[in-house]
C-alpha cells in the first residue's frame, strides 16, 4: 500500500522536531534481515521481555504463536516496546513457519541439543527467523523437523539451559551487533521506513482517530 506523503507530513506537524529526528535515528538501525519467533510461551513476562530485546537491538518484527495459550502484552516489562515493534500473531506453529518462509527467511531452531551451530559461528548473511521454544520443553518437534539449522549459546556450567528471555537477549544482541559491522544490506528500505514513520507517528499522537477524520474531511 502506497504511503500518502501529504498525510504523513500533516501528522508529523503534531510532533516535535526532536521526536521526528529520533524516529529517523532509530529507523536507521532497524532491520528485517532477522525476525524472532516464539512458540507458545506460557509466562507473559518472557514474551514481553523478548519484545523489549527486539526493540532495543533493532529487530522490527516479532512472531508469537498462540496455539495453546492466549497472550496479552505485559506493558510493565515491555516498557512501551509494543508501540515500536511489529507483532505478528499466529494460531498455529505451521502458519508461522509458512509465513516466515514465504518472506524468504530460513528457519533456525534454538536448542542446546543436536549438532547445533555455536552462536559465534552462526552465518549471519542469510535472512533468518530465529525460533525460541517454551520454558520447560523447548521447541516442538514440528519446528525441529522443519528447521534449516540449529543454534545454541556456548555454556560452561552445570546448567544446560537459560531462561528464554535471557537466551533471546544474548542471541539478538550478538547477531545484530555482527550484522551492523558487516557489509550485508540489512537496513530497512525506503518504503519500509515510510510505513514505520507513519505507524510510529500515529502511535505518538493522542486522539489520532479524530485527527485522521479531520484531515480526510478537509480533502
UniProtKB/TrEMBL annotation:
Catalytic activity line of the entry: guanosine(18) in tRNA + S-adenosyl-L-methionine = 2'-O-methylguanosine(18) in tRNA + S-adenosyl-L-homocysteine + H(+)
InterPro entries associated with the record: Alpha/beta_knot_MTases, SpoU_MeTrfase, TrmH, tRNA_m1G_MTases_N
Keyword Transmembrane helix: no
Family per similarity comment: Belongs to the class IV-like SAM-binding methyltransferase superfamily. RNA methyltransferase TrmH family.
Protein name: tRNA (guanosine(18)-2'-O)-methyltransferase
Swiss-Prot/TrEMBL GO biological process terms: methylation
GO molecular function, one term: methyltransferase activity
Enzyme class: transferase
Residues engaged in binding S-adenosyl-L-methionine: 110, 153, 162
Amino acid at each position: 500500500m502506497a504511503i500518502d506523503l501529504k498525510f504523513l507530513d500533516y501528522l508529523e506537524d503534531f510532533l516535535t522536531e526532536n521526536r521526528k529526528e529520533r524516529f529517523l535515528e532509530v529507523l536507521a538501525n532497524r532491520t528485517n534481515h532477522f525476525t524472532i519467533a516464539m512458540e507458545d510461551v506460557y509466562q507473559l513476562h518472557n514474551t514481553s521481555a523478548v519484545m523489549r530485546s527486539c526493540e532495543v537491538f533493532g529487530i522490527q518484527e516479532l512472531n508469537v504463536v498462540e496455539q495453546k495459550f492466549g497472550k496479552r502484552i505485559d506493558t510493565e516489562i515491555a516498557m512501551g516496546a509494543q508501540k515500536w515493534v511489529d507483532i505478528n500473531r499466529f494460531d498455529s506453529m505451521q502458519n508461522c513457519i509458512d509465513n516466515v518462509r514465504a518472506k524468504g527467511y530460513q528457519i533456525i531452531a534454538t536448542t542446546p541439543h543436536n549438532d547445533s551451530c555455536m552462536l559465534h559461528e552462526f552465518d549471519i548473511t542469510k535472512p533468518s527467523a530465529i525460533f525460541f521454544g517454551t520454558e520447560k520443553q523447548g521447541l516442538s518437534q514440528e519446528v525441529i523437523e522443519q528447521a534449516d539449522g540449529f543454534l545454541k549459546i556456548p555454556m560452561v556450567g552445570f546448567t544446560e539451559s537459560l531462561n528464554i528471555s535471557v537466551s533471546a537477549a544474548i542471541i539478538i544482541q550478538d547477531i545484530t551487533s555482527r550484522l551492523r559491522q558487516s557489509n550485508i544490506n540489512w537496513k530497512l528500505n525506503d518504503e519500509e521506513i515510510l510505513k514505520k514513520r507513519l505507524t510510529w507517528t500515529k502511535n505518538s499522537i493522542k486522539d489520532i482517530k479524530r485527527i485522521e477524520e479531520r484531515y480526510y474531511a478537509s480533502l
